[in-house]
Amino acid sequence: MTPTVVILGRPNVGKSTLFNRLAQRRIAIVDDTPGVTRDRKQAEARIGGRDVTLVDTAGLEEAPPDTVAGRMRQSSEAALRAADLVLFVIDARAGLTPADRAFAAWLRKAALPVLVVANKAEGRGGIAAAMEAFELGLGDPVAVSAEHNEGLGALHEAVTEALGAPPEDEPEDAAEDPDRPLRIAIVGRPNAGKSTLLNALMGEERMITGPEPGLTRDSVAHEWVDHTGGRVRLVDTAGMRKKARIQERLEQMSVAATLGALKEAEVVILVVDALLGMDEQDLRIARLAEREGRGIVIAFNKWDAVEDRAATRRVLDDTLMASLAQLRGIAVVPLSAQTGRGVDKLMPAVRTAYALWNKRVGTGELNRWLEGALSRHPPPAVEGRRIKLRYGTMPKARPPTIAIFGTRAEDLPEDYRRYLVNTFRDTFAMPGVPIRLQLRGTKNPYAEE
Predict the structure, then answer these.
(1) What domains can be seen in the chain, in order of their start residue?
(2) Pick from 34, 50, 52, 32: which is nearest to 42 by CA?
(3) What whole-number distance in Å separates Cα of residue 260 and Cα of residue 233?
(4) Which end of the chain is more exposed for a tag (fewer CB within 10 A), N or C?
(5) What is the pLDDT of residues 192-206, one digit of tens each?
(6) Which residues are annotated as a binding site?
(7) Residues at the annotated binding site for GTP?
């Protein structure tokens, strides 16, 4: 088992900057605004010559449990219970605060290995200021500047000493795990229930939830094993509002992180509030996922609170038929993330969408389909010139992609392209999957130049 290293500290001491630096890539959103990180965020990293699971946490604050700050603290406390080593980060420039001293006393009672990391200790003056952290009674502080990449070598050495040498059977450079997890992004509008759904799927409170919209600010990944025993990497994302309403820099960064998570995903779960129905913003997010070529499943959340379910479902189906025809047959799972009802049906739908997204069709089958489609409905002439489609291949899946060759194939009208995609979808049973159609003309060697 790889050891878990948890980064703790009060807000705005540079925990997420340190997390990104140790993970050697920009994962967590970083901003001068205190409290940007609200949920645990984890990544695999190599520190001190060994592989670790690195966990970034929300800032520690004294607050009632029913407030956002209180729920953030509860999330950090849950991370602490799984820790093999704690990096307790303080701000060397600001000096020790009463909150730092209170949280240090709390960590001493936890009886866990703790390293005090005095961040923002750039330059000679910063290192001197870091020495004040001796007062916390948690051992020698390690002076670093995560922003300026100073002191990280000493921190790696301190982590190695705290965790011990790596096991002899652990390779120096671990190869990529062949059993790579299925990558899923949970997307949707603010307050649709994305974080509640992630908690319901994982069976524990991994994400901070509440009635306040916009609680999740960053894209937060969690590894998990689903009902099939397969590994899953779930990414909860910030809610996406209409572009015209996004004004604050922090929200712009949150949306950028969401788009990044969507592009890295293999299947996207679009969470729709069943009480509000599917509006234009939901459709916009679905179209974005389709353009990126991702498998898509709709989680129709808050289903338990819907009074007229038959009418609500009819409206949804009509909306999908009229406005999302390019994903005809998309899987819709009515559920309640709050109560857990229907959640057990979501991952089977996701696994089915993933299998279809990976589906390949042999060249012989494909050309028999093409011949039948052409005989039932021949291509129209364009500007009095006949279009002749000769053969097709499937160069790739993920998503399924058809390449059709023929004379003036690139001139096919849009409605005939849709006809080919829809008959392909129906023939090979690929409902709700993005399908790419590539048309490639063949040059007539006898045509006049």
Answers:
(1) 4-163 (3.40.50.300), 182-357 (3.40.50.300), 363-441 (3.30.300.20)
(2) 52
(3) 15
(4) C
(5) 888 899 889 988 765
(6) 9-16, 56-60, 119-122, 188-195, 236-240, 301-304
(7) 9-16, 56-60, 119-122, 188-195, 236-240, 301-304
